[in-house]
Automatic annotation (TrEMBL):
Originating organism: Leucobacter iarius
NCBIfam families to which the protein is assigned, alphabetical: maleylpyruvate isomerase family mycothiol-dependent enzyme
Highest rank taxon of the organism: Bacteria
Pfam family, one: MDMPI_C
Domain Mycothiol-dependent maleylpyruvate isomerase metal-binding: 9-144
Gene Ontology molecular function: isomerase activity
Domain MDMPI C-terminal: 152-230
Signal peptide (residue range): none
Protein name per UniProt: Mycothiol-dependent maleylpyruvate isomerase NagL
Keywords: Isomerase
Length: 244
């Protein structure tokens, strides 16, 4: 757990740096997420930390305290946050990140194992919130579209993200069948089609695989992927299934 908390601090510092590089006027620019400006991304990341603090309360006290009252409440909160003045938006990120760090620091050992529910209703141990925060910080740092690159994401985080994505696709049964692999690192993860074997092999560097699998990658960022059918014949790179 200590190593994961350290990774969360590093991810927080990276997002904070990319945010600090933006002028107040640049917060109005678009991002990699359709319909969201940088303001929306920063508001979401800030309120996400507050939502995880609510799960910390749940884990410590045993009293259910959901991340959000409802999906609609979450969306409205982000929309309102995006209208904050620039200094208030920056303060939201800074203050919420510190609050979450303090909550994690003060969480008793036994509370890390307490089951809580995510915003999607999935039951997880409270310890899972560290990973939930890590993926939010790294992916949304890239969403800011302010120079963060896919290869900025540490390789172990990339691999875990890819396994997470593949597991979600498999559970939903929404994939025609993929095998993702990086010949250099030896990483491999398969998402078989429902009732069948994988039909498409996508191979290449970890950053390019994540760019594709996240649905956020640009053509130039996924161009190095080698895509073939099971028979080895080249095929067109398909669109990645929805993840979250």
């Amino acid at each position: 757990m200590r190593s994961e908390l350290l990774e969360a601090r590093r991810a927080t510092a990276f997002f904070a740096r990319k945010l600090a590089e933006l002028s107040d006027a640049e917060l109005d620019a678009s991002t990699r997420l359709p319909g969201w400006t940088r303001r929306h991304v920063v508001a979401h990341v800030g309120y996400n930390a507050r939502a995880l603090c609510r799960l910390a309360f749940w884990a410590r006290t045993g009293v259910p305290h959901p991340m959000y009252a409802s999906p609609g409440a979450r969306d409205r909160e982000i929309a309102r946050g995006a209208t904050l003045q620039a200094h208030a938006l920056r303060h939201l990120f800074d203050h919420s990140a510190v609050s979450l760090s303090v909550e994690w620091r003060d969480t008793p050992d036994a509370a890390w194992r307490v089951p809580v529910r995510t915003a999607t209703g999935r039951e997880v141990a409270f310890s899972e919130t560290v990973w939930m925060r890590l993926r939010e910080l790294w992916l949304h740092a890239i969403d800011l579209d302010n120079g963060a690159r896919w290869d900025d994401v540490p390789a172990p985080i990339v691999e875990r993200l890819l396994v997470d994505m593949v597991g979600t696709w498999t559970a939903r049964g929404e994939t025609p069948g993929f095998v993702l692999s990086d010949p250099v690192s030896g990483f491999s993860a398969a998402a078989p089609a429902p009732g069948g074997a994988p039909s498409i092999r996508i191979a290449g560097p970890l950053p390019a695989l994540l760019a594709w699998a996240s649905g956020r990658g640009r053509v130039s960022e996924t161009a190095g992927l080698d895509v073939t059918g099971i028979d080895g014949a080249p095929v067109r790179l398909p669109e990645a299934p929805r993840w979250l």
